[in-house]
Amino acid sequence: MVYDAIIIGRGPAGISGAVYTTRANLSTLIIGRxxxxxxxxxxxxxxxxxxxxxxxxxxxxxxxKQAERLGARIIDDEVVSIEKDVNFKVHCxxxxxxxxxxxxxxxxxVIKAPVKNLNKYEGRGVSYCTTCDGFFxxxxxxxxxxxxxxxxxxxxxxxxFTKDITIFTNGAPLKISDKYKDVLSxxxxxxxxxxxxxxxxxxxxxxxEDGSRDELNGLFVAYGSASSVSFALKMGIAxxxxxxxxxxxxxxxxxxxxxxxxxxxxxKQISVAVGQGAIAxxxxxxxxxxxxxxx
Length: 295
Fold this sequence. Notes:
Elements: E1 2-8, H1 12-23, E2 28-31, H2 56-70, E3 73-75, E4 79-84, E5 88-92, E6 96-104, E7 126-127, H3 130-133, E8 142-145, H4 149-158, E9 165-168, H5 178-181, E10 188-190, E11 194-198, E12 205-208, E13 213-215, E14 218-221, H6 228-235, E15 257-259, H7 270-294
Parallel strand pairs: 1-2, 1-6, 2-3, 6-15, 7-14, 8-9, 8-14, 9-10
Antiparallel strand pairs: 4-5, 5-6, 11-12, 12-13
Helix pairs in contact: 1-2, 1-7
């Protein structure tokens, strides 16, 4: 099945977008974990229409029910990569899906790799994009910093270039789904905590907290879950490194791909995310209708 719209992220921006796309009769799939930072909001007092404070969890659950009532399909999964061909192919931990348009609404990255001086080597051996930079590490020793399915997926992306790959969890226990457990044998796993990277002009390796060192030619960061900016880096979507550039229609520089909410670097408020989701949805509706007319 080819969906008219796939929405990645089930927070206010994503659900708002889905409400509009489903009401416009677009087949809509929402993909995301129920792990929004809004779940940590005990009382929301500045959102329109609520006389009394409401919890973030209540808002999220109400939005979910609304989208499902209108016909959206919601699946609990993690997106690890997106590809663009004629349509978009969205690859998750458990399955893959295809759509005519995609909305990135995963929020802003909230997990940063807690490694001292890591940013010092960004662009000098530390990379956030295996698709962009994997080619430069042919037959070299590389590491992937992470502990989830996302890290294993990125390690697999490097296999065509090198077989010398170590996954560094930085002291965190591996959180891997059954799908990826069978491929772990392709990689070395180092679960020691990292003190800091070392090197002169470029990264030369990692110093671990126990005093040992692990030499590397490059380190790819895939810590936590893939964010909208992670997808942007891989697909060539214009960003400032932290946020995705969009126009007034919430369009990125890739036709058919839109972004809304915190990942666009806006004022981080529920009302703003909801509004951007609605604008993005309207643009997706127009795009799909043009595709249908041309088809």
